[in-house]
Each structure stands twice: as structure tokens, then as C-alpha cells.
Amino acid sequence: MFSFAVSICLAISATALLLHALGAWATRKHTADRHAPAVPLPPLTLLKPIKGLEEELELNLRSFFAQDYPGALQFIFCSTEPGDPGIELARQVAAEYPRWRVDFVLSDPDFGYNPKVSNLAGALSSAEHDLVLQSDANVRIRPAYLKAVVQEFLQQRAGLLGSLVVGSRERSLGAALENVQLTTFITPGICLAYEVFKIPCVIGKSILFRRSELNELGGLAAVKDVLAEDYLLGELYTRAGKRVVLSRFVVDNINVTASLRRFVARHSRWLKMRAVVHAVGFAADLLSNASFFALLATVLSGGERQLWIGYLLVVLYKGFVDARLLEHLRGEKLSRAHLLSLPLRDLILPGLWVHALFSRSTEWRGERFHLTRGSKLIPLGSASSITAYELSALGPSSSPTPARPPAEHQG
């Protein structure tokens, strides 16, 4: 007879395995091929925020220029840093595609505390078309992606459309952990929420929207001082009665040589963000770790042989399902050398979760912030003199929106 603590851990592990299977099913269901009649496609503006030379940036950019989009396309590359080497590379790539209009914008870094939003604000103010796709510099898209998501956006009558994210191209352990987490945990979790619980979640790696509608909702100024700008944009649209859609098409998030330290830092920040924007989701991040709770039950039992066997079976089952899901979403298998990242990920994340439970400070792009309710960012230097009650009571920032930055046109 197992102790109460062991029984609880086993029950959590069994429930987590069920949710894991449901997540894999929901992902396959959501990404299944659906043939729909083609519709006329409107002009489109692509926003590409740049910060330095991302891994395989040139190939990422070429994947957008190589799209066969039937309507007018405008590319806007933006950076908050003069002389950004990523912008220089974008110029070189753009020169090979004179068919498309290309603009380069120097954004105002003081627009808000969120550096990505500050960068995007400069680009959005120079958008020529109402329909806008924003995608990160480390995103690579597959052939016909633009046509597919714009058609989906129009057919679904969406206000905001977000794409699923798949981690790809790993050559290091840290990159493998990052790609495994994106592909076998975050993406299935989002699909499960969308397909089973009808809850839309937005990941800001690639989102499609109308500039006019975003302006009606307050524009990017509404999310300029928060960390979880994508999640809160989704909430903003939902509260306004606009439809938030999860695309069935995926984009590839390129992680090649990331270090283990970078993986730890990134997911520490992500878990802290989850803790302040969605407490239930934050708890679920831990409770959905079937391998960890199977191992914890084994340790609490004093190492009973049958529980060790059970733990190994859980690891093997999860590894098999995750490996198949990776192959389905990426179109290629995880290498044998990186298969060990699957169980290793499940052992690392509980420690990061405990740290996120007690810590609200985070470092992002060289700056340190304190996270408050709603993932509001407070520069750490100014947070030390604010009480915990005052931090939790802070409302949206009222900082003015900067003037429209200059745009440089090419093409």
C-alpha cells in the first residue's frame, strides 16, 4: 500500500499522461489538412523587427521574399539601433528581390519598456496596407505560408490570427531543449486549449491583424510596458468581441546553437510571466509533467522497484509520443543524439518552476525588470522603492506615443 504522498504523485502523473495524449491528439486534429475554396487576397504589409544577427537570419529572411503572394507586398524591417548588422543583412537580401517594396525604419527605443513592441511601433506607423503580418527575425516560413494564412484569416473572419510554433535546426543541447519544449509542450498545450476548451492563445512569433482594428483597441501603446504582449493582445481582442483564431499552419522558430544557460534564462522568464498573467496555467505547467511526478513518487516510496519500472515506462511512452509529434510538425525526426533532451527537459523545468514561484525579477535583452500583475514591466532600479502593494496596484502606463519615425524606402 502506497503512502498518501506517493498516491497523490501517481495520480498527478496519470492525469498528466492523459492530458499529454489529448494534447498530441488536439495538435494532429488542428493541423490536419483542410481544403477550402480560394478567396481574393488583399495587399499585405510584413513587419520584421530586427536586433542583431539572429541564427541563420539570411535563410529566415529569404523564406519570406521567396513567397508567391498574388497581392501587393510591403516589407518593413525595423531596428532601434543605428547600424544594426541585421538591418545591413536585410538590405543585401532585399536587393535581390526588386519585385517587392521594402522599407527600413529606425524605431524609438523609448516607446515602451518592451523592446520588441517599441521596435514594432516604428514599423507599424510606416505600414502602407491595413492587413499586417508581424513575425520575429528568428522565424522561417514554409512555401505558400503567406497565401494560406491570409486566406484562413479572411475565411475565419478573424480579428487576430496567431500561428503555431515549431522549434527547428538544433545542433546543441540547449537548442534541442528549446525546440523540444516549443514543439512538444507549448504547441500541444495551445492546441488542447483551443480544440477542447475553446480558449484561444496567441504566440507573438507570427501574428496577422488589421492595423485599423488594432488602432481602435488602443494600438501597440496598450501593450508597450508588458512582457506578455502577445497574450494580452489576444485578451484585448477577445474582450472587444473580435475573433481570435489559432492558425492550423506552423512557422519554424530557428534555434541552432543555443546554450543550456540561454534555455534556462528564457524559460525562467517565461514561467515568471505565466505566474503573473495566468495562475491556473502556471500551476498546470508543473502538474502536466508526468515524468517528474512519476519520479517523485518513486523517490518518496524509497525506490520501490515497481515504481522505477513505472517511471521508465512513462519516460519511454512520453518520448515515443513526443518524437512522433516532432516528426509530424517538423517533417523531420529528432536526431538520436538529441532524443535524450526529451526526459532531461522534464527534469530541468520543475526547478525553474519553483524559482519562478518566488522570483519576479527578470533580465531581458541586457536590462533587468520587476514583473508585476499582468506582466507589467518595472525597471529594476525603480522597483526597489515601490512596495509590493503598490506594484500590484499599478495600472497601464500613460506615457505618450512618440512621433512617427522616419522610413527609408528601397525597391
Quickly describe the structure.
This protein is of the alpha/beta class and 411 residues long. It has helices at 4-30, 57-65, 85-94, 115-124, 145-155, 173-195, 211-216, 229-239, 260-277, 279-287, 290-300, 305-330, 341-358, 380-383, 388-393, and strands at 44-49, 73-79, 101-106, 131-135, 139-140, 160-168, 206-210, 244-254, 361-364, 367-372, 376-379, 407-410.
Q: How would you classify the helix and strand content by structural class?
A: alpha/beta
- Distance between the first and last residues' Cα: 74 Å
User: Biggest sheet, strands in spatial order?
Assistant: 5-8-6-7-4-1-2-3-12
Helix content: 40-55%
- Determine the strand fraction and express it as a percent band: 15-25%
* DSSP strand count: 12
Unreliable parts:
382-406
CATH architecture grouping of the domain at 35-258: Alpha-Beta Complex
What name does the CATH topology of the domain at 35-258 carry?
Spore Coat Polysaccharide Biosynthesis Protein SpsA, Chain A
> How would you spell out the order of helices and strands?
HEHEHEHEEHEHEHHEHHHHHEEEHHE
Looking at this structure, what is the CATH superfamily of the domain at 35-258?
Answer: Spore Coat Polysaccharide Biosynthesis Protein SpsA, Chain A
Roughly what is the average pLDDT, rounded to an integer? Answer: 90
Main sheet attributes: strand count, strand direction, barrel closure: 9 strands, mixed
User: What's the helix count?
Assistant: 15
Radius of gyration: 22 Å
What's the shape?
A: globular
Task: Provide the CATH top-level class of the domain at 35-258.
Answer: Alpha Beta
